[in-house]
Amino acid sequence: ESRPESMSSFWMPFTNNRDFKAHPRLLVSAQGMYYKDVDGNAVLDGTAGLWCVPCGHAQPKIVAAVSEMVGQLDFAPTFQMGHPAAFDLAERLMDYTNHKFGHVFYTNSGSEAVDTALKIALAYHKARGDAGRTRLIGRERGYHGVGFGGLSVGGIGPNRKAFGPLLPGVDHLPHTHNLGKNAFSRGEPEHGAELADELERIVALHDASTIAAVIVEPVAGSTGVLIPPQGYLKRLRELCTKHGILLIFDEVITGFGRLTTPFAVDYFDVEPDMMTTAKGLTNGTVPMGAVFSKKFIHDAFMEAPAGIELFHGYTYSGHPLACAASIATLEVFKEQGILENAKSLQPYWEDAVHSLRGLPHVIDIRTIGLVAGIELESIPGKPGARAFAAFKQAFADGILIRTTGDIIALSPPLVLEKKHIDELFGKLAAVLKNLD
Ligand code: PMP
Questions:
Q1: Cα of 221 to ligand 1 centre, how many Å?
Q2: pTM attached to this predicted model
Q3: Which domain of life is it from (predicted)?
């Protein structure tokens, strides 16, 4: 009875999945590693919300920082003015990213960060008088949010179809996952850099001088935890440099410790020209995204010839609450040793993930850092149904997992302990054993 009687006016997220209305799973509170549902049941968070709560829920320092800021400075424009927390955060982010980038631009979401990065790429070439570079390249099975730019470079066919026409002049690299070869991989699967050479095929087709940027998720998250083969990202970097194409990493998921390093940039030791992030940036509290760019990109804008007027920004860019939340998040990362905890638990996590091998319907397991994809065999004619059944049973049993198609994705808050790993995989194994 505690559920709302009518869900009829609630249309979010915009999807044709009808299950939510039939059986809403309502979360009413969260603390540390656990949610509480509307019936008072504890649910272990195996997904960090939507990949966005590395420091655990209701982290006291972050809660206090946001509460304090809302009473002090509820809003301040960042057009032609600013506020100290926006500058303070920028400095701290430069430190956190080891000064690999020169500038950061604030958005309110990952989608906005992606569209901003694509716009910066297009405008960068124009600012340098290279107006012919307008093509963008994404990757099949990449997810880059729901803006028209992100949808266009994203690699989800049905979305591209449903919401088209999208941006013209977009190509997609093939995705890197080869089920037969990558099956049950730990860390980066083998078989080298030749997949990145697909970029040469696109370059040969269109000429490098027409291509503005390549955008990829270092590890594709939302579409099923697809880990690039060894050498792939390095080779992409080489090819982009060779052809004067900007390389953008979308680190909305892989940022803030998901791979046990500050960003995937550090894990793979490859430096893009721009990097987008969101989610963990504020520990999932106040919505915020960001685009990091190399200094040379920013400089090109400053040195753009007269006559090129550029404008891009959001009312809520650098919102004081988001900045306060993010500053506190970075402090918690340091004080609580979030990355160190992730690193020290990673081998235990990896073994736990691979303990699911051999259970009914499990056809692949992929894991890197503190993220895992467990792929189930689809029921013929009903793609996604088996994993969704697992999700529902898991929730009823007190663990939150995420599914995409027939892939279960796991990405817990990084403050977890061994006992949480035991609980998560103990319950998940039981669910999988009893699955039809
Ligand atoms: N890029 C990536 C890699 C993502 O995973 C997501 C969200 N899952 C986005 C962009 C979009 O972020 P948002 O939902 O905050 O707009």
A1: 9
A2: 0.96
A3: Bacteria
